[in-house]
Write a structure and sequence with these properties.
Layout lengths: L16 H17 L30 E7 L5 E6 L2 E2 L4 H12 L13 E6 L5 H12 E4 L2 E4 L3 E4 L5
Parallel strand pairs: 1-4, 4-7
Antiparallel strand pairs: 1-2, 2-3, 5-6
């Protein structure tokens, strides 16, 4: 079969000048806005020095375990500090923390002092977690704030 309308093939060329300009502009932009940051996870770990003290550990050396249980609606059902049941009273929780750690927490060095690990149910309402943090972190005495525990960490929520 013969083609009657034979046209010359037209070559279309792409002008690369503008594309190269855009690439260089992007390159300059990213080079000028690049900020070098410190590596994440670079922790300064301090190991305890060997001493002649006996091997007994203080109760506040380990993290205190705070367990908050919830019902299906997310309401607080029970509070337990180191397996001691406290009902649902955050005042009792605060008194227990005061009894365990006392009032003398060094506020100048955050690496020292007791630590609490909060273990919650997955559906616990956020307001109860905040109340627990408030109860263990300190209290107001007049116009002064008395710190209790400054180091707080969270366990993975339970389903």
């Amino acid at each position: 079969m013969k083609m009657r309308n034979k046209q010359e093939e037209i070559k279309h060329e792409v002008n690369m000048t503008s594309m190269i300009d855009i690439v260089f502009l992007l390159l300059v932009f990213f080079v000028m806005t690049f900020k070098i940051v410190e590596l994440e996870g670079d922790f300064s770990v301090r190991m305890p020095l060997a001493g002649t003290e006996s091997g007994t550990a203080d109760d506040t050396d380990l993290p205190l375990k705070l367990r908050l249980r919830a019902n299906e609606q997310g309401q607080l059902v029970s509070i337990a500090m180191n397996e001691v049941q406290l009902g649902t009273d955050f005042g009792a929780l605060q008194n227990t923390v005061i009894g365990l750690v006392g009032n003398a927490v060094p506020s100048d060095d955050a690496d020292k002092g007791p630590e609490v690990e909060i273990d919650t149910d997955f559906n616990l309402r956020y307001e109860h977690v905040i109340e627990a943090i408030t109860a263990v972190s300190g209290y107001k005495e007049g116009d002064q704030t008395v710190p209790l525990i400054e180091r707080i960490k969270f366990a993975k929520p339970r389903r």
